[in-house]
Amino acid sequence: MRRSHYRSESRFPAWFTGRRRIIAAVATVVAFGSIVTVTQVSDASTKSRNQQRALAACNNIQAPKKSKLSTETKTGTYTTGNGKVTQHADDGAGDVPTTETLRKRCRDWMNGNTGGNNGGNNGGAASPAPSGSTAAGGGNNGGGNNNGGGNNNGGGATTAPTTPATPPPGAGLGILTNSCDTSNLDAHTGFQDGNRCVSTEFGEVGVAANNPSLLITEIPTNVAVGQAFTIKVSTRNLIRDRFLAAGQGGYYVESSVLQNGLVRGHFHTACRVLDSTDEAPDPEPVPAFFVATEDSKGGAAPDVVNIQVPGLPTEGTFQCSSWAGDGSHRIPMMQRANETPAFDSARVQVGGNGGGDNADGGNNNN
User: Fold this and answer.
1) pTM for this one?
2) Residue 305 class from Cβ within 10 Å (0-12 exposed, 13-18 middle, 19+ buried)?
3) d(Cα 6, Cα 244) in Å, to the nearest integer?
4) Tens digit of pLDDT for each residue in 180-201?
5) Distance (Å, rounded) from C-alpha 65 to C-alpha 278?
6) Domains detected in the chain
7) How far is Cα of residue 200 from the mean position of the Cα atoms in its chain?
8) Cβ atoms within 10 Å of 219's Cβ, excluding its own
9) Rounded to whole angstroms, how far apart are CA atoms 348 and 325?
């Protein structure tokens, strides 16, 4: 059969045919296999060094200082309602771990979650780069410079565009910042430290009809000094099953999470004395009473929880408040800016006229 004169020339030299081509291919495979082996050994060595450095950093962790606690609250974690309702005194602030416990937690996490740069060097996805920066697109093998995604084959290291495809939230409003990248403060650690920057993302926010609400439905207007009393609190659209003790490092570390559109979290109740009813109170002193309530109940339908206050220590006007919290103790977010947050407050007069019966909280709420 006559060959077409349109047949293209071989891209190999005349001598590079037949047996010579096979031998060269085998040599290439062997050589490439050696390179991969060396790369894997080198990569494993790098991972080991990185992990050792990370584990060594765990040994520098120190336990946080103990926080000041409310004066009249039963300490620790306890139950009410025949053991069905869990109360965490002071939002778990008194539950402070030892230095060795923290270091062990750190080492356990490092061993379970790090092995060097797993996401990059073995073909995993790289973190997105900020605008104007260079991103490593997946590492050296299966997404890096050599095979299937590097500089040779159309992927891997790329330069992010200096202008984002869409404007960021709040564009044009002159926002001061939206990340800790611009802050000079140290990163927040999950403990109750001030002058820190919290990088935890806000998380999930539900629709307005599913946003949490809260109301103090019953509270006495007058009680005697040291007299125990009950505050009845109703919540709606709040699943009360998420609580991370503040003293254990669970403060501002968990993003908001929805379950069937509802916030998972807990609620707080506190009573503090007011030095004046004509000006905003000093925020620093600890309250006389503070609990965080978690009972694995709640939901879309409103219900009522009884909060037992063991008594307040001095005469005066006390402000007793209740408010919902997500897993990180923040008041839950709302779809709209003009919604009322899940918060309620009432005045209780201690001493003076002596004790009184529980009254409808609506008449003296603030």
Assistant:
1) 0.63
2) buried
3) 74
4) 999 999 999 999 999 999 999 9
5) 34
6) 59-113+188-366 (2.60.40.150)
7) 5
8) 29
9) 23
